[in-house]
Write a structure and sequence with these properties.
Pfam families: DUF3011 (PF11218). With 242 residues, the protein is α+β, with helices and mostly antiparallel strands. The chain has 3 domains: 92 residues, no CATH class; 70 residues, no CATH class; 63 residues, no CATH class. Helix content is 17%, strand content 34%. The strands form 5 sheets. The chain has a 3-stranded antiparallel sheet with strand order 3-8-5. Strands 4-7-6 form a 3-stranded antiparallel sheet, with no helix packed on it. Strands 9-14-11 form a 3-stranded antiparallel sheet, with no helix packed on it. Strand 6 and strand 7 form a beta hairpin. The longest helix is centred in the N-terminal third of the chain and has 15 residues. The two termini are 37 Å apart. The relative contact order is 0.12.
Length: 242
C-alpha cells in the first residue's frame, strides 16, 4: 500500500464498534434486530474507499435496484413497451437469516433465552446463566433512558449484568463450556503480549480494566486459537470461555 493511501485509511481518534437494536414493530413479538454501528470506528474510512470504487460498477448490474421508486420506474418502463405476458410472475424476496458467518457446529450448540434484567436506583445486578455467554442483545427497553452495552449492561463468562438504572428484556445466547479469569497486559504497556489458555477460546470479554487505555476487541486485544493477544497498552482481567 502506498504511503499516501496508508496515511489516509489510518483513523485518528476512532471509537470502537457498538451494538444497537432495531425493533420491527410490524412483526409479532417485536423481535430485536441487532445492528453493528460502525460510525467513527477504525475501519470506517476503508469502507469509504470500497464504496467509492464499487458504487459505479454496481449500477451496471442488470438486476440493480436503487430503491422502491426505482423499482416502480422499471415496472412502468416495462409496461410502456407493451403489456406483460399473462404468465408473467412478479415476486418479492427477502433473506431468512443474515448470520451467514456463524461457524458450523458452534451454532448447533448455541442456546438462547430471553430474560428481564432491572437495575433499581442505579444498582448493579447480576444473573448467572451457568454457561459461557456469547452474546447479549437488548430486545426491549423498559425505561426512557438508553441502555448502553458495556456501560449499563453486558456480560462476562456465565454472568449477565445491568447497572445505572438500565431495565430491559434481553436475548442471551450461550454455549456449553467453562470460564476462567485471566489477567493479561502488553509488555511495558506497549509491546504485544500473548496469554495461552491451552484450549480453543470460544468467547472473551473484559471484566476489569487495569489501565487507563481502552481494551477493545481487534483494536487492543484479539483471539488467536488458544491464545489471547493484547497490545496497544491494553491491560485487563478477561473472562475467557472455552
Amino acid at each position: 500500500m502506498a504511503r499516501e493511501a496508508s496515511s489516509y485509511v489510518h483513523a485518528m481518534g476512532s471509537i470502537p464498534y457498538h451494538d444497537i437494536t432495531s425493533t420491527p414493530i410490524h412483526k409479532e413479538g417485536n423481535p430485536g434486530r441487532p445492528i453493528i454501528s460502525g460510525n467513527g470506528c477504525p475501519t470506517e474510512i476503508i469502507s469509504h474507499i470500497v464504496d467509492y470504487h464499487l458504487k459505479d460498477l454496481v449500477r451496471l448490474i442488470p438486476s440493480y435496484v436503487q430503491d422502491n421508486m426505482d423499482f416502480l420506474r422499471k415496472i412502468h418502463n416495462i409496461n410502456a413497451v407493451g403489456p406483460l405476458p399473462p404468465d408473467t410472475i412478479l415476486c418479492t424476496m427477502d433473506v431468512s437469516a443474515l448470520y451467514t458467518n456463524t461457524p458450523h457446529g458452534e451454532d448447533e450448540q448455541t442456546t438462547c433465552r430471553q430474560v428481564t434484567l432491572i437495575s433499581v436506583a442505579s444498582r448493579y445486578r447480576e444473573l448467572i446463566i451457568s454457561r459461557t455467554i456469547r452474546s447479549m442483545t437488548l430486545v426491549r427497553r423498559y425505561i426512557t433512558q438508553p441502555c448502553i452495552k458495556n456501560f449499563s449492561y453486558g456480560f462476562y463468562g456465565p454472568y449477565a449484568w445491568v447497572s445505572r438504572n438500565c431495565r430491559g428484556w434481553f436475548r442471551i445466547c450461550y454455549i456449553p463450556g467453562a470460564t476462567r479469569l485471566i489477567t493479561c497486559s502488553s509488555r511495558n504497556y506497549m509491546e504485544a503480549s500473548i496469554c495461552n489458555v491451552a484450549r480453543p477460546i470460544k468467547s472473551v470479554t473484559v471484566k476489569y480494566h487495569l489501565s487507563r487505555y481502552p481494551c477493545v476487541l481487534n483494536y487492543s486485544y484479539r483471539v488467536i486459537g488458544t491464545r489471547l493477544q493484547v497490545y496497544n497498552r491494553c491491560r485487563a482481567t478477561f473472562a475467557v470461555g472455552y
